[in-house]
Design brief:
Length: about 230
Amino acid sequence: MSEPRLYPGTGPDQRTHFTPYGAFEVPADLRQLHGRFDVEATARRIRNFRYAEEWIMLTLGGWLATIPEVPVKTGLGKIVWESAQAADALGKRLPELRCGRASVSASESPNQGFAALVQAVAEPERPDLTIEKLAGMFDVLKPHLLAVYERTARETDPIADAPTVEILEDVVRRTRRHLAWADAVLERLCDTDGKRERRRRRAAELRAQLEACGGVTGALRDESAPPQ
């Protein structure tokens, strides 16, 4: 008879010494299955989020040619790239949510009102409207997206939808940095009462439009309501 086969770690000189442990000693996973959104609802949100990030990328990229302040140009350049990265990551998540391979490029507005809102945010073109450009994007649209992303990551299924949570947490981290940068820039640009009023008026107009259309998911009231 042939000699018994030795498997890795079974030979006298291959044994690994370790301290035995019981299953009860493994840290418990405190996450719970089931979240607020099913697969279809999550996929719809991802398409809505991708629509917003695509428009942010396109809008900021277009503004680079019309903003005269060089420090603003250089700061926006990285935000354009990171918005493109966010849209790409969201698109790659869609096929994993039973949407088909072609869905990587899918995006949709929740309604005509939100489509009109992003058009309104992108509307300023003249070189002397940098305050209006930044106020609409960074005082209204991106803070709204940040709040919705955070709530979605918090309320979706933390186990079955963990990839979405990871994507949104990364986008949230970058968005917080974008908002801090923009606030510092706007503080420098708005150095008179008249300019500060321009910022306030622009934000108020777009905020009213945002509330009327229901935001990026079309359900702003639900997003603002306390969790059940």
